[in-house]
Amino acid sequence: MNQQGHMASYGQPQPGYQGYQQFGYNNQHSAGVPTTQYGPYNGPVQGYETTAASQGPLRPASGAPPTSLPPSTAAHSTTYSQYGQGDIQNGPALTDQMQRFPVSQSYMSGGQPMPYQQYAPPPSNAQQLPNQMAAMQISGSTNNAPPPVSQSYGPPTSHHQTTAGFPPTGPTVYTQYSTPVQNISTNIPQAGNPPQHPFPGQTVPATTFTSPPTSMGLTGMNLSPPAGVPRPTAMHGPPLPGPSQTGFPPSQPPIGHYPPQPNHRPAGPQPGTGMPGVVPGPPSQGFQVHPTQPSQGFIPQQNGSFGQMRAPQPNYAAPYTGTPSYSSQPQQQQKRLDPDSIPSPIQVIEDDKSNRGSEPFSTGVRGQVPPLVTTDFVVKDQGNSSPRFVRCAAYNLPCTSDMAKQCQVPLTAVIKPLATLPADETPPYIVDHGETGPVRCNRCKAYMCPYMQFIEGGRRFQCAFCSCVTEVLPHYFQHLDHTGKRMDYYDRPELSLGSYEFLATVDYCKNNKIPNPPAFIFMIDVSYNALKSGLVHLLCEELKTLLDYLPREGNAEESSIRVGFVTYNKVLHFYNVKSSLAQPQMMVVSDIADMFVPLLDGFLVNVNESRAVINSLLEQIPEMFGDTRETETVFGPVIQAGLEALKAAECAGKLFIFHSTLPLAEAPGKLKNRDDKKLINTDKEKVLFQPQTSFYNNLAKECVAQGCCVDLFLFPNQYVDVATLGLVTYQSGGSIYKYTYFQAQADGERFLNDLHRDVRKVIGFDSVMRVRTSTGIRATDFFGSFYMSNTTDVELAALDCDKAITVEFKHDDKLNEDNGAQIQCALLYTSCSGQRRLRIHNLSLNCCTQLADLYRNCETDTLINYFVKLAYRSVLSNPTKTVRDTLINQSAQILACYRKNCASPSSAGQLILPECMKLLPVYLNCVLKSDVIQPGAEVSTDDRSYIRQLVTSMDVAETSVFFYPRLLPVHKMDVDSDDFPVAIRCSEERLSKGGIYLLENGLNLFIWVGMNTQHDLIQSIFNVQSFGQIDSALSALPMLDNPYSKKLRSMVDMTRAQRPRFMKLMIVKQDDKMELLFKHFLMEDKSASGGASYVDFLCHMHKEIRQLLS
Amino acid sequence: MKWIEADFSQNTSVVMATYQEFIQQNEERDGVRFSWNVWPSSRLEATRMVVPLACLFTPLKERPDLPPIQYEPVLCSRATCRAVLNPLCQVDYRAKLWACNFCFQRNQFSPSYSGISEVNQPAELLPQFSTIEYVVKRGTPAPLIFLYVVDTCLEEDDLQALKESLQMSLSLLPPNALVGLITFGRMVQVHELNCEGISKSYVFRGTKDLTAKQIQDMLGLTKPPAPVQGRAPQPQEHPGISSRFLQPVQKIDMNLTDLLGELQRDPWPVSQGKRPLRSSGVAISIAVGLLEGSFPNTGARIMLFTGGPPTQGPGMVVGDELKAPIRSWHDIEKDNARYLKKATKHYEALANRAAVNGQCIDIYACALDQTGLLELKCCCNLTGGYIVMGDSFNTSLFKQTFQRVFSKGLQGDFRMAFGATLEIKTTRELKIAGAIGTCVSLNSKGTSVSENELGVGGTCQWKICSLDPCTTLGIYFEVVNQHNAPIPQGGRGAIQFVTQYQHSSGQRRIRVTTVARNWADAQSQLQQIEAAFDQEASAVLMARLGVFRAESEEGPDVLRWLDRQLIRLCQKFGQFHKDDPDSFRLSETFSLYPQFMFHLRRSPFLQVFNNSPDESSYYRHHFMRQDLTQSLIMIQPILYSYSFYGPPEPVLLDSSSILPDRILLMDTFFQIVIYHGETIAQWRQAGYQDMQEYENFKQLLQAPLDDGQDILQTRFPMPRYVDTEHGRSQARFLLSKVNPSQTYNNLYAWGQESGAPILTDDVSLQVFMDHLKKLAVSSAS
Questions:
Q1: Which of A743, A807, B149, B636 is the most exposed place for a label (fewest CB within 10 A)?
Q2: Region Disordered: what ranges (chain A) (predicted)?
Q3: Domain membership of residue A663 as a residue range
C-alpha cells in the first residue's frame, strides 16, 4: 500500500509539470496526500496540485503551504507562464499541495504491483515536461486529458510558489500571473528556479525544466512517478515485437487494477489530509487521469499500484501500518516490490532527454541544475561554466554548516577542466592581459571573472570571493555603463563568460623560465611475453603512423612535441634517433639500481626531422628482440629513466609505458606476488589496494614535480599488482589501460584505438589546479588522479580532457542567500606547444535556508560520482564492509532528512524520496555491488585495483554509465533514424528471448542474443542462418549491406565514440557460458557476489530510513 | 740513431777501452748495464761506494739473432731456487748432471738431454747465449687485445682527427687482434661490435664506480655461471660473450670504422663557465672490469684517448667549474688540491687490478691545459702503458706517435709484449733491494730478497704488463757478504733474469739472461772497482732513485740527497788535498758524472718549476721506462751545431754555444729544437736560401732539418718539433736547457768570445763544480 502511495506521489510531481503530470497526477494523486485539496480544485488540476502537495514540505496538514510553496514555485512558474488562469484558480489551495509533492517521492515499500501505476505518471519528468509532455501524452492513451490537466496543474504550481514561501509576494505574483511572463519574472526573485522563467521566450523550456524538476522532485518524489516513465517505454515495446510484451506482463495485471487506482489516489491524498470526505474529490481527479491512462496503457501500471494503493490509501493510517510491514516485506500483502513500481533510471533519463534535450542550456542564471549527463544538450556560456566543465551535486547550497550537517548532502563539484566540447560549442577563448599577467584580486588572488564587481566608476573592483577591493590597472580600465557593467563587458570573455583561458606570463612558469615543449617517451617492454603476444610488433608498426597525430596547438602544421623511445626488459635500452644518423643507436643501461639517461641530444627528437631513423628503429625493434628469452622485467627504473630524461631535457611530458609482467628483476621497485584472495572481506583487504612498497610513492612525487605524467598500458597474463604499478600513473594524472591475456589478433583493435586516443587527446602538462570559493565555503577534499603536497593545490603532472576531479566543499562560515556561492577553478598548465596558460572555470550557486530548496536542486549522478570516489578511496584504509555501510548510512541520512524536513507527513511506511534523488537508491546499489567494494569470486585483485583507479578520475557521465550500464534493445531499433532505441532497465527480466541487446558501460560492450531471435534478424546481423551458428568469438560484427547490420554497427561505433576508452565487442549468446559475465552487468538484479537486487535494496534503504526517523 | 751512439762513445771514449767495449758488448748481448762492473765483495764496502750496485736491465732488448728455442727451460730442482740452466753452470756430461750456479744444487738432466756431451751442447749452455729465449707451447696463443677508450668531450676537429687516427689504426692491427671500443663523456658507453643495423652500446653513468662484478653483470658477461675455475685464461671458451664487445679486427673493421665515423661529440650541453663532464675514472674502471671478466690474465692494451681532465665521478681531478682551475704544483705544495689524493687512489687501485690481470693502460692526452696525468700516471707507470701528451689530436705529434705504437720490429713482430713477469735470481752474496720502472711487485718473497728496499722492493718478482724492446728497469742490489768473509767462491757473482711474457704473436716466451761479474776487495782492489765504474749507467740509476723519491718526497729533499751522494762519491773517489778545492781531481771513469748530476738537478724530472704537475708526470714516466741512451739524453740533452765551418759537430750544452752564425739542433728527447743564430736568421729572412748562388746556405738550413727528421721518425713518443731562431719566444726551449755560463750576472762575458747571455739566476756548471769541489775537499763534511 505504501508503495502505492509513493507511486502516486511520484506521478504527481511529474505531472505537475505538464502533460506528464496528468498521468502522474492521477497516480500520484492516489498517493495523493493532496487529494483532498485536489478535490476542491479542478479535477484534472488536482493531479497537479497533488504534485504540489507532494512537495510535502508544505504538507497540507502542517499548513506549511507557505513554506512549501517557494520550492514548488519554480516548477510552477513555468506552468504559470502557460496557464495564467489555472494559476489563479488553483492558486491558493493548490500551492499547498503542490509544494509537498515536488519535494518528495514516496516509495511504498510494499506495493510491488504498484510500480506500473507510477509509470503512467512519467511525472518524474514533469520538469522537462513541456516537451516530454507531448511525447508522453502520445504514449499515454490519454493525450487529451493530460494536457488540460497539465495546464491546470501549471497554475496550481504557480500558486504554490506564490502561496508558498512567499505569501507577501504571493499576491503580486498572482496579479502577475495573469501575464505569464510577468509571473515568471516575479517568480524569479522568489526562487532560484524562477530566473529561468524570465526568459520564457528562449529558455522557457529549459528553465521550466530545471525549475520544474526541482519542484517536480518535490512533488513527484513518490516513486510511482518514475515508474510511470518506464511505462511509456514499455508501451512502445509492446507494439513493436511480440516478445517485448512478454517482458512486460506485469503491465497487464496493473491494467486490471486500474479501476482501483482512481480510488486510491483520491483516497491517498485525502487520507493525508485526514479527511474522508476528501476522497470523492480525488476520485474525480483520479478518474480523469485514469481514464486517459488506462486507455493508453498507463492504466496497467496504475492498476497494479492502485490495487495496492487502495488499501493503504484509504486509511492513511492504515497505509502506514502497511509500511511497517513493508519493512518486513514478508508481512506485507505483496512481498515483492514490483520492479516497475520503483523509480526507473531509464524513465528519468528519457524524461530528461525529451524535456531538456532540445533547448540550449544557458548558464546565465545562478544555481541552475543542468540537464542530466545522459541528455544531449547544447550549452550557452553566459557567465557560468558549462556543466561539461563543472557539475555540482547541489546547486542550492545550505547557508549554514548546520544545515549541511543535517541533510548530509555532500557539497561537491566534479570538475573536468579540459573537457572536450562538442563541435557546436566554442572552446574557451584565450585572453591575454599582457606582460602584467592576468588581472587578479590582490588578496585571494582570484582571477578576473564575471562575478567581480566594478566600483568607483570602474577604477576598482571588488572581489566576489573575498570582498577585497583591488585597484584596476590603467591598461585594464574601462568605464561602466548605467547598470554598473563595464562597457567592454561583451568584448572580454573574462567578464562575460564562465570559462576562458588566460595566457600566463613567465611568473607562472617553473623557475621563471618559459617551458620547453613537452615530450612523449614511448617505453616498450621487450621481454618474452610482450613479444610472444604480438604486442611489440603491433605497437611498433602502429607507432610509425601514430606519430603523425601528436597533439598540436590550434592550426599548427606540426606538433612541437618531441618523442623518444626506450625498450626494456631487465635492462633499459635507449635509442638515439637523431636525424643526422643513418641508423638509430641503441644504448643499454644496465645500472638499473641507479637509473640515469644515457643521452640527451638525439633521444628526444622532432618526429618529422627524424622520421627515417625512427622508422628504421621501429622496424628493427621487433626483430632485435624477436628471439629474446628474457622473462624478467623491471618497472621502477623505467619510470625513473623517463623522469630523468625529462629532467635532462628540462621539459614536462608523458611516458607511455607498455608493460607485461610483474617486475621481479632485482631493481628498485621490485615487487613480489602478494595477491591473496583470502584477504577479501577481512580487515586486511585494504592491503590489496595499497602499494606494496613506498618506492613508487616517492617516485610519483618526483614525477609530479617534474611534470612527468605516466600512462600505463598493461598486458598481463597473471597478477601484476596494478595497485602498485599504477600508483605513479595515478598520482601523475596519467591513464592506465589493462589488456589481460592480450593477443594482438584479438585485442589489437582495442589497444590501438585506446593508444590512438591516448596519444592524440588534448592534454595540459605540469599543471596546478586551485579551487577558490567565496567566503563561507572552502574546498576541503579532492578526488582524482593527482598529487597534493599541500591542502589547496592539486598538482597534476598532466591533465587530459578525460580526467575529472571531484571536489568537496565544506562550510567555514555562513553563506548568504543574496550573494550565493561562487566557485572558481583555475588550472595552470603548459599546452602541447609549451605555452603556459590558465584555464578558468567559474560557477555560481544559490544558497538556501530551507532544506527543501537544497533537495530540489540536486544532481544524483554527481552525488554518485562523489560517493564512488569517496568509497573507492576509503577502501585503502577501511574494510569494504565498513565502506559499504558508510555509504548506505549517509544515503539513508540524506533521504531521511528529506523525509523528515521536506516531505509532507505521511505514513512512516511510505518511502518518500526527493524527486532529484529518486535514483539514489538504485545507483547507490550499483556502486555497492561494484567489483571494488563487493567483489565476486571471479574478479581479480588487479581488476579491482584497475577499476578503482579508473573510476577515480571519471567524470559524471562516465560514472553514470559505468555503474548503471546502458542496455539497448537492438531488435527495436529504428533503422531509418539516427536515434538509438530507448534503453531498457538492466535486469534479466527485461530481456526477451527473441531480442538482441547491446550493453555498454564505458568499459565493456556486449551484444546479447536471445535464443529465439528471428532468423532473418540473425541473418542480417551475423550473416549466419541460425542462433546456433553465431560465433561468439567474433570480435567485430560482419560488414553486411543491410539496414540492420548497418544500423547496429553504427550504434556500436557511435557508442564507442562516446566513451573515452575503446570497448571491445563481445558477443554473448543466451545460455552461453559467457552469459555469466554479461549478467554481471545487469545491475538491477541480484549479483553473484551477493549484491542485492534493486528491489531488495530499496526495501533495505527504506528500513534504514525508517530507523533513522524513529 | 747511429750517430747519437757515436756521440756517446765520444763522450765515453776516455774510459778504458776494454771496459768500454765490455760494457757495450754486454749491453748489446744481455741488455744489462751495471753501475759497477766489478763488485765490492762486502756489504760495508759496497755501501761506501755511494752508488749502489745496480743495473739497468732491458728485458726484451731486441735480439734478432736469437734462435727460437722451442722447448721449456731446464730448472734447478731445488724448490726455493728454480734457476734456469745456463752457461755458467757446471755440467758433468758423463753423469748427465749439472750444478746450479746459484744454489749449488746438483741436478739430473732429463731423458731428453741424454745425448748431451761436450761437443753436443744445448744452446742454453753456449756462452754466447747468456741470453736465450724459450718459446713455450703452453696453452693456445691468445690474440692481442686492444680496447680503445675514447673521450668524446672534444672539439669537433679534434674528435674528427682522433676518429681518423683510430680508423687508420685498425689497419695496423694484426687481423686476429681483438678490439673493443668504449667512449665516454658524461656517460660511459661500451659498444657492442657485432650488431647489424642498430649500433648498440651499454651505458654507464660517469659518477658511479662499479666493481668488476657489477660491470660484468651489467654487461651481461656473467651468463655462464662459473666462467673458468682454473687460472688458465681461456677466453675461447666463451667467445660468444666476450665477442660482443671485443671482436677480431678482420671481422668487424668495417663495422667499427662506421661506428667510429658516427661517433658524436658528447651530446650533453656544457653551459657557460663549465667544463664538460668527463668520466675518465669510470671509463677506465669499466675497461679494466670488462677485461677482467672476459680475459683474465691475458695481455691487453687499454688505450685511453682523452682531451681533458676527468671532471666527475671517481677519479675526478677537477670540478666542472671553469673558475676553479686544475691543481698546480703550488696548490699541491699547499695541500690545496682537493681531489688529488682520492683520484690518485682510484687510479692506483685500477692500475693494480689491471696489472694483476696482465693488462696495460695507455694514456693519450691531448689538450692545451692539463688533463690530470698526475693522478692518472700510475695507470701507465704500474702497467707499463704509454703516456703521450700533446696539444691536440689534430697534430702530427699525436698522429705519428699513435701510429708508432703499432710499429713492427726487425722480424715483423709488433714491438710490444704483454703480461711479463720478471724474476731475478742471485748468488747468495747478493740480495735484491728493488726495482724501479714500469712494473709492480708480485710480492714474491725469497731468500734473495733484501730487507732494504730501493724502489719497488720486497720481492724477487715483478709484473710488467706491457713492455717493448726499450723498456728498461733499474734493478738495485745489496751486497750481503760480510766484511771479513772471503771473496766468494769462484770469485764471481751471478744474476739471472727470467722474463716470461706473451709475445705479440700470442706465444708465451721465456727469456733468460744470466750475467756474472767479478768480486773485488774494495780495500785492496779499489782501483779495479773504480775502473769498472759505469758512470752513464750510474747517473741514470741514481737519477731513477732520485725521481722515484721525488714522487713521494719534497723536491728540495731529493736534491739535497742527490747532492750529498755526489759529494760523498767525490770524496770517495776524488783525489785532492784536504781543504784545497783546486787540488780536486776525478778519474776518467767518474769525470762526467758530476756534469750529469748538474743537468739532472736542472731537469724537469726533479724541478717542477715551470712545469705543470702533468708535465712532470709525463717526463718522469718516460724517464722511468727508457733505456740508458735515451735516459741520458733526457738528463743531458745533446746539442749539435751546424755552420759553414765544417761538418755538424756536437757542442757543449752551454750558452756559449749559441752563436749568431750557427744553426743548433737540440734533442731533449721530448723536444727537437732547431735554433737559427741571429745572423743565419737574418739571412734566411732575406731569402738567400732561395738564391741559386747561395745553394750552400740552403743546404746548411736543410741539414739540421733532415737530422731532426731522422730523430722524429724513430723516436717514441714523437718529440715536439720546434723550429725557431734567435729572439723568438720558442727559443726558450733551448735557453732553458743550456748551461747558463753567461748570464746578466757575469757581464764580463759580454762582447767576449760570443754566446748568448741567459736571463737566469740559476747557477752555471762552473759555479756548481766550484761548490762541489769545495765541499768535497772540506774536512768538515
A1: A743
A2: 1-93, 138-367
A3: 519-760
